[in-house]
Structures are given as structure tokens and as C-alpha cells.
Design a protein that fits this description.
About 35% of the residues lie in helices and about 20% in strands. The longest helix has 11 residues. The protein has five helices and five strands. Helix 3 packs parallel to helix 4. By secondary structure, the protein is of the alpha/beta class. The protein has a single domain, classed as Dehydroquinase, class II (Rossmann fold, 3-Layer(aba) Sandwich). Strand 3, helix 4 and strand 4 form a beta-alpha-beta unit. The chain is globular and about 40 Å long.
Length: about 140
């Protein structure tokens, strides 16, 4: 059985409440249950934090033993050299995901310090971005 960590960054704990026109009206916990039933042969571990250092600690914790990591670092994507360096330092492949199309938003969101160190990027497919990322690890 494959083990995949889903790591979400700042403000993603507000999914379902925060800007539903951009992020939808479903909480991540509700969506995670759907993912777990869809991918019942995959062990999905979920972690969310609004704190940059906790995200780095989690990447280092799972980054040498899991089969994959799905990372939505939220706004830290565009500001955190530290998270980018953590992704570069680990051996577990990482897929960067974003719910919204970051390229249709503010210009500062067009730069990622994470992307150069990832297996791939999935942007703009809503919560389904996570499903696509899981599929990339099992196909």
C-alpha cells in the first residue's frame, strides 16, 4: 500500500468558508473523506498548519519514507525559500497543488519557490487538483 502525505499551508483550514467563489464551499476534511473512499488502496495522511516552520518540520518528517507528498503551501509558495529548500532536501517526490489558477490572480502569485524542486505542478482544478496529484503517484 502506498502512503501519501497531503500537506496544506496557511488559510487552507478555512476551505468551505473562505472566498467560496475562488475556493468552493466544501471543507477539506469533507473532501478528504471522498479521497479516502476513492483511493481505498492508498494510505492518505493529512496535515495542515498556518506556521511555516511546522510545514518544514512535516516535510522533513515524511520526506524520506513516504511514497509521495502533495503540497499546497498556500501563500508560502510565493514567499518561502525555506519551504522550497525543504522540498529540495528530501527524497520523497512532491507534487505542488493549488486550488485556484494562480496565474489568473495577482502577479506575485506567478512565482513559486517550490516548483523547481517538485515532480510536477497541478494548478486551477479546484479540490480535484488533489485527486489528480494522487493519481500521478499511483499510475
Amino acid at each position: 500500500m502506498k502512503t501519501i502525505a497531503i500537506i496544506n499551508g496557511p488559510n487552507l483550514n478555512l476551505l468551505g468558508k473562505r472566498e467560496p467563489d475562488v475556493y468552493g464551499d466544501e471543507s477539506f476534511e469533507t473532501y478528504l473523506k471522498k479521497l479516502q473512499s476513492t483511493f481505498n488502496g492508498v494510505s492518505l495522511e493529512y496535515f495542515q498548519s498556518n506556521i511555516e516552520g511546522e510545514l518544514i518540520d512535516k516535510l522533513q518528517d515524511v520526506g524520506f519514507s513516504y511514497d509521495g507528498i502533495i503540497l499546497n503551501a498556500g501563500a508560502y509558495t510565493h514567499t518561502s525559500v525555506g519551504i522550497g529548500d525543504a522540498v529540495k532536501a528530501i527524497s520523497t517526490p512532491v507534487v505542488e497543488v493549488h486550488i485556484s489558477n494562480t496565474f489568473s490572480r495577482e502577479t506575485f502569485r506567478h512565482t513559486s519557490y517550490i516548483s523547481p524542486h517538485t515532480k510536477g505542478i497541478i494548478i486551477g482544478f479546484g479540490l480535484e487538483s488533489y485527486k489528480l496529484a494522487i493519481t500521478s503517484f499511483i499510475d
